[in-house]
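Open question from group meeting: does this chain pack into something compact, or does most of it stay loose? Before anyone orders reagents, we agreed to write out a predicted structure and look at it together. Recording both the input and the output here so the notebook holds the full record.
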Amino acid sequence: MATSKQSGMEHPKEQLAIKTPPIVSPQEWEAARRELLVKEKAATRSRDALAAERRRMPWLAVEKKYEFDGPKGRTSLLELFEGRPQLIVYRAFFEPGVFGWPDHACRGCSLGADQVAHLAHLNARDTTLAYASRAPQADIARLKARMGWEMPWYTITDSFDADFGVDEWHGHNVFFRDGENVFRTYFINNRGDEAMGSTWSYLDITVLGRQEEWEDSPEGYPQTPPYKWWNWHDEYADGASVDPRWNKVLENAKVTLNLND
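Structure tokens returned:
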């Protein structure tokens, strides 16, 4: 009898034949890689240009006072920012009527949640990420514990989902706070959600971006040298200066940001 490991390695008897690329020498392989790299660098620069254009999009004032249920009770949209100027709200489907309920959230939303980077890095760039569903808080707490998710997750209590285009499908809404005033600055959904999860992909859809000196941002936007703000996720501290030892590492390595890379 075959072991489970052996069984998993066996191929189906009627496996379709695939047409594989040619097998080449190391020199030919490197030449092919470099040829493709030119296009990949162009795509990277194109994404940077799109992010720069995104930072210049007009804003939409949010006039309605939305409320959510949270772990500590009723919470306003303004309070979802947690005191930071930027907020990204992902509408996840976890509620009665969704496949998986009550044990699981939507499979697609759950796959996305599994990819969310450590939130300390986003928070260090003055950005808060939150999830929102229509499930009660007790069910959300149970789901988060089961799946090991740590993002803030709120219960929608009004027309927030319908008003922001996420009543029937998932999506990320991006907001900016100026004092007590809240503005909608961007929205991404469908396949655009596939790329989300990394610190960089989240920051690239915000008003302030990555806040690094190389970015093309409007005048007056906060910017710091690249790399220097990076830290271990358990050692960020509000108002802390850059660790001089990390500066030394960067200086010794002569690290510079090259947009052609």
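Observations to bring back to the group:
The chain has two domains: 60-211, 225-261.
DSSP finds nine helices and eight strands in the chain.
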